[in-house]
Amino acid sequence: MMAALKEYSHLTRMMIVFESVPYFDMNYCVDWAIEMLRLNYETPSLLILAGLTKPVDTYEAKPYLRNALKELNLKQKTGDEGLITYCSYLVKEISQSIRVKGNLYKLCNFFTDVDYPKFLNDFTVFIMLGMI
User: Fold this and answer.
1) Same-domain check for residues 120 and 86
2) What is the CA radius of gyration of the chain?
């Protein structure tokens, strides 16, 4: 369960699943940290993440991202919960006409890279056919 934050960056949903997503783009953690600082959240790890230069070195950023999530009392989501959270983030962006082709591509690749649960089969067929 996510900590009771009054307002948080829309990228927070991606950050809490970063270890569940193959080929996660760690550059997003810099954007997330900057947004969180703008929302008046300040932790030592957020400050470090916000100061990283893109392209971000995954091995350098991961410990700071893990620590930032802990410092903000945000629980990482893994397994089916992580999969659903990540997919729902991408679908929400698609529904708001944000990076539609890029997010569809991410969804398609994600489903081919992971052993996704059977309950997502119908959804996957629509993605593969380009109907979503």
Assistant:
1) yes
2) 15
